[in-house]
Amino acid sequence: MNKYRVTHAFADKQVGDLVGGDDLALTDFYYLLKAGVIVPQDNVQPTPKRAKKEPTEKD
Amino acid sequence: MAMPQTVYYSAPEVKIGAAAGSAVDLSEFAKSAVLVRQADALESSSMASRDRFYQAGMNTNSLTVTFNQSYEAAEVYATIEPLVGTSCYVECTPVDGTATSATNPTFSLTNTYLESMEVLAANLGELGEVQLTFTGGTYLAATS
Predict the structure, then answer these.
(1) Which of A14, A23, A29, A31 to mutate to test the interface with B (most CBs of B within 10 A)?
(2) How far is the C-alpha of B85 from the C-alpha of B126, rounded, in Å?
(3) Is 0.90 exceeded by the ipTM?
(4) Looking at beta carbons, which residues of chain A come within 8 Å of B23?
(5) Residue B43's beta-bridge partner residues?
(6) Domains (ranges, CATH) in chain B?
(7) What per-residue confidence (pLDDT) applies to A45?
(8) Between chains, do A9 and B24 touch, taking CB under 8 Å as contact?
(9) Interface contact B20, partner A, CB < 8 A
(10) Is 0.90 surpassed by the pTM of this model?
């Protein structure tokens, strides 16, 4: 089950709480996601790794 | 003249959302909140009396709230704009951060309608505000 982190208090949830997508009514879930009140827990963008340089004929 | 023993210092909790399960706490932005419970007065007078009498008709409840505007995620614009033109849920409690009780009831309107929102209201040298009016819906005063 996907977890979402609460970024702004709503209902009985506080900032930092984790809520399961299945724990919310569908209309509530879409509304909260659209407003940015909940964000996917794994919403952290990893730092892109530097592409490995492929040797060319010039090298 | 005796002073009242307790007076109410305005510090309400204001929550608004698509439904009770998604009511977002916007108390930190609220500048004013007026929730009115109204029962239309239907006149039931007759010629049997010179007094006018009324009985309750339809309920026309409403909430008028003013917020300091904010366009950040999960704040005023982001949470209110999707509700324009929909039936939504609002909730007000007299004292923010205090449990609901008989002396701190939670007033709510379920399926109340938000007709419009000023998405931009800017004046030179002033902080942006937005006033909203939620009309209709089912009134409830919860004490627990």
Answers:
(1) A31
(2) 28
(3) no
(4) 10-11
(5) B54
(6) 13-142 (2.40.30)
(7) 52
(8) yes
(9) yes
(10) no
